[in-house]
Amino acid sequence: MQLDFTPEEEAFRLEVREFIEAEYPQPLRDKMNAGAAPNKQDYVTWQQILHRKGWIAPRWPEQYGGTGWSPTQSYIFDEEISAAQTPRVMPFGLTMLGPVLLSFGSEDQKQQYLPAILDSTTWWCQGYSEPDAGSDLASLKTQAVDKGDHYLVNGSKIWTTYAHYADKMFCLVRTSSEGRKQQGISFVLLDMNDPGVEVAPIITNNGLHTVNQVFLKDVKVPKENLVGEEGAGWTIAKYLLGHERTVIAGVAASKQQMKRLKTIAEQETQQGQPLWQDNRFRDRVAEVSIDLLALEQTNMRVLSDESAGRGPGPEASLLKIRGTEIQQMITELLAEAVGYYGLPYHKEVLLSGWGETEPVGPDYAAPLLPHYFDWRKSSIYGGSNEIQKNIIAKAVLGL
Amino acid sequence: MQLDFTPEEEAFRLEVREFIEAEYPQPLRDKMNAGAAPNKQDYVTWQQILHRKGWIAPRWPEQYGGTGWSPTQSYIFDEEISAAQTPRVMPFGLTMLGPVLLSFGSEDQKQQYLPAILDSTTWWCQGYSEPDAGSDLASLKTQAVDKGDHYLVNGSKIWTTYAHYADKMFCLVRTSSEGRKQQGISFVLLDMNDPGVEVAPIITNNGLHTVNQVFLKDVKVPKENLVGEEGAGWTIAKYLLGHERTVIAGVAASKQQMKRLKTIAEQETQQGQPLWQDNRFRDRVAEVSIDLLALEQTNMRVLSDESAGRGPGPEASLLKIRGTEIQQMITELLAEAVGYYGLPYHKEVLLSGWGETEPVGPDYAAPLLPHYFDWRKSSIYGGSNEIQKNIIAKAVLGL
Amino acid sequence: MDYQLNELQQMLQQSAEKYIERDYDFLTRQSRAASDLGYSQQQWQQFAELGWLGLPFNEEDGGFGGGAGEIMVLMEAFGRGLVLEPYLASIVLSGQLFARLGNTEQKADLLPKLIDGSCKLALAHSEPGSRYELERVQSKADSNDASYLLSGQKSVVLNGNDADYYLISARTGGAGDIDAEGISLFLVAADSPGLTVRGYRTADGLQAADLTFEQLEVAESALLGEPGNAFEAIEWCFDQGIAALSAEALGCMEILHQTTVEYLQTRKQFDTPIGKFQVLQHAAVDMFIALSQSRSMVYLAADRADSARDQRRAALSAAKNFIGRAGRLMGQSATQLHGGVGMSDELNVSHYFKRLTTINTWLGDDNHHLAQYSDSLL
Amino acid sequence: MDYQLNELQQMLQQSAEKYIERDYDFLTRQSRAASDLGYSQQQWQQFAELGWLGLPFNEEDGGFGGGAGEIMVLMEAFGRGLVLEPYLASIVLSGQLFARLGNTEQKADLLPKLIDGSCKLALAHSEPGSRYELERVQSKADSNDASYLLSGQKSVVLNGNDADYYLISARTGGAGDIDAEGISLFLVAADSPGLTVRGYRTADGLQAADLTFEQLEVAESALLGEPGNAFEAIEWCFDQGIAALSAEALGCMEILHQTTVEYLQTRKQFDTPIGKFQVLQHAAVDMFIALSQSRSMVYLAADRADSARDQRRAALSAAKNFIGRAGRLMGQSATQLHGGVGMSDELNVSHYFKRLTTINTWLGDDNHHLAQYSDSLL
Hints:
Helix content of chain A is about 45%, strand content about 15%.
């Protein structure tokens, strides 16, 4: 047992940190530090910087552009990226579709799609949820009718993150209504520019446009865009859910937010003192901080098991639940810290920071309450926390 | 809207208080103040004092020995009794069987049983739960076979409070296994001295003997001991569950315990100051205190609705849930307040106080941790809090 | 002991609920919120016609002599409708404060216009750095012949964006920045030279403003009450605001609870209404429990709003803390139980959630009032 | 980064778990607890034979040179068995403290007897009124020629009922009662004249004692370490105790979790195993989550038990806080999910619940350590 990182691991951390320090563009950095939401160009800019360094797909096999890092190295990389508050790497191509193609795709599909994922020239989105199939994903209704060389797809996807940025979509569709409902699902790729694809924005409770409803009307999907066998969609979806579970805890990002919370609470005043001096406030932060430490240690223990060749045990399933609960608590404390100045709503600041404008109240205050509202999504998406608990009850506890 | 008590109500409160002050025997008072558990004689002594005053059965009709008080007066009476920390009035005869006999019993049964309930010469116990029928009361298995002029009863009851004190038991038995399982249940009275009745003590987590398992082997129950119709047992049981719901919140007792908590925290020291001065501790007490205030106001609002002729609304159902949660929190805070001196376990002190013996640590400390353990029962018995929520979900929310 | 609404209150409740049902459906509310003003002047005139704007004022001042119980009934209905009009800012907080401190002449001048809807007020008390501490006032009012010169800043003034007059607190004396003594209150016209108003929307779709003023000159007649003596009244009016906000929160919670239960009854997943899942049932029950107890605390707040100071402050802090926590539970649970739909701006759920969240912040959040209440136990 | 047990630890784990399984079933445990001594001297000798009593001591002192990681493994197994023998008191706390402060002669005298099981120690540090504050020592040791005169009281000394020697802390200097400087530690025989030991059982079936001493004379050679310099070592040994207790708690939680899940699988109500009810499922999942994370915190505690002071104290406070909260959740939930059966003294559930509760109190409860940790963030 040796819970600290090794000197080699610490050296790697330094390398990552220095790279970010050197390559993270200042204007983007300023915008991100202001708590503004990155736009498409911001994401692509940063991803392409990572790509040029060869660090865009740490968990892919080396021959396809991966880094060959150990799980611990990948974790350290995530920590540094989060600490620097860069835009996050969009998961749709890199951590979702990529591994799926690598495991289930044809050689042609790999050749065709992987390079453009790596260099961020194709933006993918994920077509899973439907208006009538949220937590009960398997009841999805989008139909793909076999027309010989292609499928004719009709239906609708919802909560599709950045569909309005996307060039392509990977998508679960129903190719059969026979048998158990899981069996008739297939995994297909389609082009967002195809006739019949229509993207309708959904504004969420922070007033911003991130997710969409996507309508699919008589969209032709060539048969070569089927990934894996027809009817293998559910297997692929489950494979993805199990994938990269150690990342979903979001520990590194939460640690970064805890630092931000402390910084803010040191600047806010209460009864003429820094708010951070108030035991009552700081104790609440301390409890979340301990919870985060426990989550981090659990995350690392799971990683260590992985490194020791023991695949992520059942512990991995709890990371999403606790990870999102803690993220939400931190957003709540951040909003609380700024008191009345959490209330003003400035949409333009959420999009691009205060810039030259004199801020209303402290410059860090504006995004905090919208972030709090927005992060309520984290216990809903990716399988709601209730669903996660159902899974643990059944799969782990045998109930 | 006039949330305070009227002058008449306050005068009544004073009358009750003065009565208790004059009549509550000092030795019993000392024992109760020490947090010791009353024994049979203690209960009977106090109940007979109330009986002599005519105050033993506030909610019975006047003609049968009731007081004719308004719901508010009854509530005030409960508050004063709790504040004085007298032994509680045992509910089995007075608030359970009594109302059942009044509503469902024959004239003979009323004549035979009610007087001895009022003067506490008969101690009743309640035979509901069975080893295989806890929350699912209707699945009870104790059989009563019709033998002409009597039933032959076989089975077993469990968690029977003070069965070892009891002269008689009212009891749910199965007189038929036809139809829905609720339908074959009957309500009968039996004598604890009957051949075939055996009481086995169950020691609970505080180390004390309060509850029992009662074995019934070929116990003869004369037909005249059947209350109501054969098969009406479930109706009677449900009637009882709905009865006196405003008492179960235990607000008055909890208010008394909150006072005790403050007194103790003023005597305990921390960092050379009274513990009560510590914001961190006091804030936790404050939150419970606010929760208790909200419960009290809700309790009174329900009472007010009752007085206004609107029977207890659905709000009444939540009183048990919140009442027990708050009771449990208070026992937890009390144990926390005394730190290390919560740990020593002195069974004899739990039974009769320190008496002449020099206490280990502060004299109030010994019962606190055992009380905490013991009060975990309150969210289990009387329909567990989970069952209560099921009921609200179904009956109130229509889910 | 009596928790029943009296006849006047029942009447008010009926008319307010009817008004909300008829004139304040969610889509209309959203279009009013999106307008330049952020609410409807026409509705405000309706409020005047219904007598609501005069509700808490004495009959000799042209009002109806209502108290916290009547305001409670109104605000609960406003909560159900997510009402945008500045009733809390202009009537409950500023109006009552003005009526309490102003002399006969000042009242005769302004109250009729307030009551007929032609004039609106906003209370400018909190400052950057004061957080929820009412005594902490740094703004200064220097006496200068027959006038005062006001300098300072005021933070997040509720409905400060379009008030005709501000009630500005400033220090004419006192030992340092946190003395309850020495705080004075001034009536300042919105168009006064030297006053900068920076308005904005708030997260709940309402609006507010930051004020800056430097050597802003007001006549002596702008002073409300005795110099240096305004604190007690300010504190009192914050408590009136707390009682009113709590009632508004109750209205929000009612709708959220009702909407959520209906959603659970109708939304299907796994071939069954999701309200059949026990975990979701119990979450809905927890909402129900919070709602019921919130009603009790709202009654208590209204009942205690005119009690003696210590009793009043403790009860109001208890209420604000409870309502804050209950509102958080209601908002978060309603969102969670609605799933993705609960996140959408198009549905009312997210707006009730946001309003409950900002209500918790206004006039001191749950943790502030827990501390206040806790200290009152000493 | 490596969270795997090393070979020695794995071996220890196997032997300890085997021992618990073979020699420490619940009924045997209960009969030992009911005996006069409250545990089994025979088992204690077994501990000696298995080498456990010498585990943390240096090889030159006759020990095995184990550290917090090895103690962790042992204590986790002890938690599973609800072990009664005074390993925490005599070895982890007192033994290690003695070994750290004692000189060669003192160690040569006592350690062999400690390691072979013929002698037991108890640490008498906390006092009435000191609560969990380690610096607060009122007991006095007055120097008197070649001896010291000790006067004071010690509270709830773990296993103080049958120790052969006490480590008694007393003040030989320092400014007032709460100075970390000036605290000395003395080795005092249980049968010393002037020492009154009042023993009793504790709520978890273990035992403890209150000590009173007045002008109790001990030789200069009873002083451990430099005069006035014991505080740092006492603090360190409390942290070793915290790491060990946390591991014991983990063992308790494992059994509670396993027992509860089995109960949910087998107990039927409403014609179905109660584990089919979603609310109970999620409660069991919450227990599972608490258990998993507790394991991580126990590892962290062991790993940090010998780190530099500030880092060590913060990590150990975090662990003790987390374990305290997790233990409460586990105990309360296991009781609730077992229903009436969980209240019974006859079943093991109530005993694990009680032990987890007292573990939270020992060496500072969750709220104390939250405050400690919180203050370390400043």
